[in-house]
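About this split. The held-out portion is used to measure sequence recovery: a designer receives only the structure tokens and must propose an amino acid at every position. Recovery is the fraction of positions where the proposal matches the reference. Here is one held-out target exactly as it appears in the evaluation file.
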């Protein structure tokens, strides 16, 4: 796990460099990763220069009340959906006043899956202020709970980095 965490921290370092150079700030909204994205970002000294904060919104009520995810979106699509990941990213970005917001929601496992939404299904979204539609990615992991969380955090960091560099998330 040490090597995998080191890889995530290296990505976080790259993101920090770009964000500081471009004057960008970041906020995180996490469900299945339980704060891992924010943890990795804060492993890099100087992260307070661009990381505004994060929300671990495990329960649907927290997604709704803290992040502003519409109840109708949760009802229509379920917490594990592209629509909720986007709403989480947009909500945390707006509420914390960040340039970029990332939302991660999924089923880390080992339980909680269904045929329609199996264990390892994760959606990651990144929202920015530039008027571009939020980028969203569907992932289907086959690892255990810890590796699913790490893989999801890696995608979140890669998408944030791509958006910070001016590309699509």
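Reference sequence for scoring:
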């Amino acid at each position: 796990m040490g090597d995998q965490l080191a890889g995530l921290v290296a990505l976080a370092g790259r993101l920090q460099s770009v964000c500081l150079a471009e004057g960008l700030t970041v906020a995180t909204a996490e469900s299945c990763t339980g704060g891992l994205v924010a943890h990795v970002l804060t492993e890099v000294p100087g992260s307070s220069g661009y990381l505004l904060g994060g929300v671990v919104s495990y329960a649907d009520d927290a997604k709704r009340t803290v992040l502003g995810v519409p109840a109708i979106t949760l009802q229509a699509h379920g917490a594990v959906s592209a629509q909720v990941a986007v709403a989480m990213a947009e909500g945390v970005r707006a509420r914390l006043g960040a340039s970029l917001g990332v939302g991660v929601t999924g089923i880390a496992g080992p339980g909680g899956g269904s045929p329609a939404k199996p264990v390892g299904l994760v959606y990651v979204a990144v929202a920015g202020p530039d008027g571009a539609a939020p980028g969203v990615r569907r992932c289907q992991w086959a690892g255990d709970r810890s590796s699913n969380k790490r893989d999801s955090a890696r995608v979140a960091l890669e998408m944030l980095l791509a958006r910070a560099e001016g590309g699509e998330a």
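Annotator remark: The longest strand covers residues 100-106.
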